[in-house]
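fold-stage: in
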Amino acid sequence: MAVSVAVTGLGLVSPAGIGLPAGWDRVCAGEPTADHDPILADGPVTISCRVPDFDGARLLGPRAARRLDRFVQLALVAAREAVADAGLDHAGWDGARVGVVLGNTAGGTATVEQQSRVLLTEGPAAVLPQLLPMHLANMLAGTASIELGALGPSLTVATACASGATAIGLARDLLLAGRCDVVVTGGSEAMITPLEMAGFAQMRALSRRNADPRGASRPFDVDRDGFVAGEGAGILILEREADASARGARVRARIAGFGASADAHHVTAPDPSGRGIELALRAALADAGAAPGDVDHVNAHGTSTPLNDVTEAGVLRRVLGGADALVTSTKGVTGHCLGAAGAVEAVLTVRSIEEGLVPPTANLTTLDPAVDLAVAVKPTPRRIDLALSNSFGFGGQNAVLAVSRA
């Protein structure tokens, strides 16, 4: 009998709100979160999607707020919610059988930039002794393992904007291999800083709608001009379904399949043929034992960039054909959460399946004629037995999760 991997807990910290209920409600309302960002006021792009009212000192304690970069703080808050949602108590579990696999792109960029200024203005003696543990990317999983008493494999995965989805796929592999009984997985990102955003702006990747922040992220729209950077964390608790059932846990959904691939094409631009994306999509379906016609819903990567949206849409049309799959991109609300995007969107995909509801693609006014897909523009009730969640990153790194109804 095939082993099934269950999602038993969810945690979400996103621009749509702190906690899954708040985030889900705003995503379903199609209410964009982009706004003017004082930190970016001197740059060419002055808008972003921030987590509202996030206070690390209040949520985690003053000591943690001083010693942890924001990308770790976001993850810990989401992880606490997910563990509680799963009905687990990390004080009582067998930590040797608990793994942590989290995705992240850049580590603690805010800490690096701030401490670089300290070095230049005050000298090396003024640099924080906590600099390295605050900014190293591996500290995402490392700190979560410490927080949760998880003694199993502790991995931080970096596949750019596919990091969160890749982490979930690898976490599933650990369970299938019998190396863990529980895996805390997902991704976190907090790289909205002047330097990082200047780099994205110089690449012409960001929307320049500074005068209309709420209307800037518009996936699949004919007038899209780039993505809006976001931040956040999405955490899932995964267990083998038999183990979850044995302890009486609620199974929210299943991670039924995972596909990963590389474009082997360009460091930033997607392969216009979509060959790599297609490989990942077909691999996820095959891993799930599913046919293209079985797909009811796709939470698309849908970044609101001219190249990505058309390429992804072409591949979805080619792979799914005339399948009745309703597509959405929740980035119209949350912006692009970069390395956390795949995890945030996996959480939302699970909720879509549970609620029987496809969230709208915010700001989609006129569908690009090159996008030959059924794209949701309003909250749409639908029974979803199988959904795909797509994530693609710089370097041509692709990850697709197949998520099925419990």
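fold-stage: in (second)
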Amino acid sequence: MRAYENQFSDNRPIRRSRDEKRRQLAELRQVLAGMKPHVTPALRASIAAKIAALEAELREQKG
């Protein structure tokens, strides 16, 4: 089934406000801090990368 224009399935990033990005950053930090020792390193790395990307976006917006 084809996507219609302006649907979320158009493979475009979802735009988030600065507050939403801060909230997501806090949630991801909590998830990373609460991970058990047996969690795969790849999952830890992907969450850490997302945190770094969000921090960079927030710095970029601030400056």
